[in-house]
# Entry
Amino acid sequence: MLAIIAILTALTVGLFALTLIQLRPGSSGVTARLDEMDPSDRNEIQARRRRQVRSDRLMGVLQALGQQVGSGRKDTTAVRQFLIQAGYSDPNAVSVYWACRVIMPVAFAALAIFGLPLLGVSSTQSLLGVGWLGALGWIGPTFYVRRRLKARQKEVQLALADMLDMLVVCVEAGLGLNQALVRVADEIDHVSPVMSEQLAMVNLEMRAGTPRDEALKNLAERTGLADIRSLVNMMIQTDRFGTSVADALRVHSETMRTKRRQRAEEAAAKTTIKLVFPLVLFVFPAMFVVVIGPSALAIYRTFSKL
# Structure
C-alpha cells in the first residue's frame, strides 16, 4: 500500500511539473507557432485583421443608416422576402439594401457635380447628368438584386427535374423523405449549388423542430417559383392523406420533364422571330453591298462616260 501511494504521489508531482512547464510563458504550441512564423505572415494576418475591422465599421454605418431610412416603411416584409429570394438571408440585409439605395444616388450626383464641369460640359447638361446619375444610383441596387434573383431562379428551374429524379430514386430505395432530401442535397451540389443550399436549409429547419409542411412552405417562399410551390403542395397533400410518396414524386417528375421540354420547344420557336432584327440590321446590308455594289459601280462608270 505504501509503495502504491508513493508511486501515485510521484506521478502526480511529475504531471503537475509538466503542466507548469507547458503553461510557462512562451512555451505554448500557439506561441511557438507564432514565433516560427515569418514576418510576412504576421503582416498578412495583421492586414487581414485591419481589413476586417474596417469592414465591420463600414457595415455598422450602413446598418445604422439603413435602419433610419427603412424604419417608417411599410414594405419591409416584401423587401426582406425579395432579398431572401436573391440569396441575401442575413438579418441586416434590408438595412444594407436601403443604405445602398441612399448612398449611391448621392455619390453619383456628387461625382456628376464635380466631374462633369471638369470635362467641359455645360451647366444644363451637367444638371441633366446629375439627374440621370442620381436615378441610376437609386435603381442600381434593385436592378442588381433582381438580376441575381432571376439567375438563381433559372438555376433552380433547370435543376428541378434532376432533383426530382434523384428524389424518386432515393425514396424508392427505401429512404425516408427527410433522409432522401439530405442525400439529394449532397448529390446535386455539383449541378446546382443553389438547389443544394435550399434543400439543406429545409433539412436544418426540420432538425430544429419545424414541422415538415412549414419547412416545405418556407422552401417555396425562399425560391419564389411556381413549380417549387406546386411540388411543395403535392408533398404536403401526400403526407397529409397518407398516399405513396414515390408514386406522387414519379408522376410529378414526369410532369416537370414535360414542362421543361415544352419550354425548350417554345424557346426554339421564338428563335426565328428573334433572328429577324439581326438579319435586317447586320446581315442584309452586307449582302446588299456585296450583291449590288459591283453592279452599281459598273452603272456609274457607264453613265460617267456618257
Notes: The two ends are 137 Å apart (CA to CA).
